[in-house]
TrEMBL record:
Source organism of this protein record: Bilifractor porci
Protein name: Uncharacterized protein
Length: 168
């Protein structure tokens, strides 16, 4: 099967459950309160956080959506994106990647992940700038430098850490 060839996400549920052995997992269906958005045959897998902080959610629908705290990412129903999803799950759960959410005042600017085992402020700011630049959102970089920003970084199993960037 080619990397961009379509797959059926529902066919990958058992494989995902096998790869998530260790943490407690609850599988939700559309007949449960709060999960009515799921269509028949779709599921939301909730991975219980063993420490402080948010649980991780994986929606298996026509595509895959991985959510952790205020961050989420969508993965297409292809072999390549499924491989990326499994890689991201592994990195998050093994604390080799953390999520980043950026606010200026009370306004959400962006969310992304950083593949590092610890938060280093200079590297973090470079990752945010690169992410915003690649999304053609340089105006937000200027806004962050002018107004300052609140940056929320979260590793699996820990409480969110806040990094503040002061404006000019």
């Amino acid at each position: 099967m080619g990397k961009t060839e379509k797959i059926r996400p529902a066919d990958k549920i058992q494989e995902l459950q096998q790869s998530l052995k260790g943490p407690e997992i609850t599988t939700h269906l559309n007949d449960e309160e709060g999960y009515e958005y799921l269509e028949k045959g779709h599921v939301c897998m909730e991975v219980q956080n063993p420490g402080a902080g948010d649980n991780l959610f994986l929606d298996v629908e026509d595509q895959f959506t991985l959510s952790f705290g205020e961050w989420d990412s969508q993965y297409a129903a292809t072999e390549e994106d499924f491989r990326l999803l499994c890689e991201d799950l592994n990195l998050l759960l093994n604390r080799k990647m953390y999520t980043v959410v950026v606010y200026v005042k009370d306004d959400w600017i962006c969310s992304l992940t950083v593949r590092e085992k610890e938060i280093r402020k200079n590297n973090l700011l470079d990752h945010i700038r690169d992410f915003l630049h690649s999304a053609d959102c340089d105006a937000f970089i200027d806004l962050m430098q002018k107004e300052g920003a609140s940056i929320r970084c979260t590793f699996w199993g820990e409480k969110t850490k806040k990094v503040h960037l002061t404006g000019r």
